[in-house]
Specification:
The protein is α/β, with parallel strands linked by helices and 424 residues long. Helices cover 28% and strands 25% of the residues. Strands 4, 14, 15, 16, 17, 18, 19, 20 and 21 form a nine-stranded mixed beta sheet that branches. Strands 5-6-7-8-9-11-12-13 form an eight-stranded parallel beta barrel, surrounded by five helices. It binds ligand LLP.
Length: 424
């Protein structure tokens, strides 16, 4: 459920009419709904509430990569969320938003030594180590500092998550984690190192999962591994089950609900006797944001439908170009008439296509429209391709709104460039 809906024929974000935002902030602009974020956070928390309490209460570490906007992080921090970060930049954002260092987990297959140092400097709660090489490096850095880094070992369970190949992370050929068959050996090697407090395992098999079965299969493998590791004498107190729960992008799509996910987790982890962590991104932020855009013009097609050319482009919302992803597209003030159109941006690539042959509200030059489900992997994946700037981001709260990220003009990006003397 989200808070983007028509009121008296005009699309609103909560109680703010979108034309007001377009007028004051310009387009394209990302618009986030605080109430939607909070609702998603609460539903997710409630779904996991049976998994433990007190110091066994699950850690919910928001996947910052899905939406790193400081105000979004702040909303989630106030809901008691921690953060799953994958770079020094994300780590600094999570802390800037007030997330407790002990509630930060640091994932990622290529953490640099500087990033490992930063994690230690900031005393984060957990490093999710992705290889024996990384584990040895972290152990060496920590022990040289006279410290001990808390860590879990990420396992690659070789499970097909049945999602887009570019966002599948748990198959043997993917770069993530340690293959299950080597997990015991690597775990034993790392558990013996000074500087490392290896206390469990982590997993994340992919994103936009619409079926719980691959997750449950992967969790069963984790459960068996935990037993094996304990039998080998290791003390396992923490398991991080990652993120991945899908969201509806299209009307009629029905991904598993957080409650169904929670029930499956409860079933799969029964008797594990650990503190669980979760790294949800999309399920929290996806439907809490839209991209508001204005139609530049409508151009007659060749032998197909007309091109609705909007002022947003693949540099602002990359998902359709990158993954062939579907985003619902609706007029802000629908007339009731419909059309079939190709929805495209102004960038000079055919890939700058949001939708082909899409049946949608009838639109003409100057009209406002929205792409839905743009709150996750939207603004954060923007680029400045075609020397376009970075779009602004707005957060709505009831009948008020605020710009939570300024538009960055193409000229400001150019200001960071220098022409050297040898070209003078
Ligand atoms: N944890 C780890 C280790 C991850 O790699 C990811 C996502 C998450 C958690 C959060 O997954 P979520 O709950 O959001 O599914 N740009 C792509 C998605 C890439 C996901 C990468 N990893 C897209 O736009 O669909």
């Amino acid at each position: 459920m989200d808070h983007f809906s028509l009121k008296s024929g005009v699309m609103h974000a909560e109680d703010v009419a979108l034309p007001r935002i377009a007028e004051e902030v310009g387009t394209p602009v990302y618009v986030y709904s605080r109430a939607t974020l909070e609702r998603h956070a609460q539903v997710f928390k409630a779904a996991l509430s049976g998994l433990g309490s007190g110091d066994r209460a699950p850690l919910i570490a928001f996947a910052v990569k899905s939406n790193p906007n400081l105000s979004v992080l702040k909303v989630l921090q106030r809901q008691g969320f921690g953060a799953d970060v994958v770079s020094g930049g994300e780590l600094i954002r999570a802390l800037a938003a007030g997330m407790a260092p002990e509630d930060v987990v640091f994932s990622g297959v290529g953490k640099t030594s500087a990033e490992l140092e930063l994690g230690l400097d900031k005393q984060i709660g957990q490093f999710n180590i992705e290889s024996s090489e990384e584990g040895r490096e972290l152990a060496a850095i920590a022990s040289a500092r006279g410290e001990e880094a808390s860590a879990v070992l990420r396992i690659n369970p070789d499970v097909d998550a049945k999602t887009h190949e570019k966002i599948s992370t748990g198959k043997a050929e993917n770069k993530f984690g340690v293959p299950l068959i080597r997990a015991r050996e690597v775990y034993s090697e790392l558990a013996g190192l000074a500087g490392l407090n290896l206390r469990g395992v982590a997993i994340h098999i992919g994103s936009q999962l619409l079926d719980l079965e691959p997750l449950e299969t992967a969790f069963a493998k984790v459960g068996a591994l935990v037993s094996d590791l304990r039998a080998a004498g290791h003390t396992i107190t923490h398991v991080d089950l990652g993120g991945g729960l899908g969201v509806p992008y299209k009307a009629g799509e029905t991904p598993p609900s957080p409650a169904e996910y929670g029930a499956m987790v409860e079933r799969a982890t029964k008797g594990w006797d650990v503190r669980l962590a979760f790294e949800p991104g999309r399920v929290i932020a996806g439907n809490a944001g839209i991209l508001l855009t204005r139609v530049v013009r409508v151009k007659r097609g060749g032998n197909g439908p007309p091109f609705v050319i909007v002022d947003a482009a693949m540099n602002d919302l990359a998902r359709p170009a990158l993954y062939g992803a579907w985003h619902d597209f609706e007029a802000v003030e629908p007339s009731g008439e419909r059309m079939t159109a190709n929805i495209v941006g102004p960038i000079c690539e055919t890939g700058d296509t949001f939708a082909k042959d899409r049946e949608c509200d009838a639109l003409q030059s100057g009209d406002l429209a929205i792409f839905r489900t743009a709150g996750a992997y939207g603004a954060t994946m923007a680029s400045s391709y075609n020397s376009r700037g970075f779009v602004a981001e707005v957060m709505v709260d009831g009948d008020q709104f605020a710009v939570v990220a300024d538009r960055i003009a193409a000229s400001a990006i150019m200001d960071a460039e220098r022409v050297p003397d040898f070209l003078a």
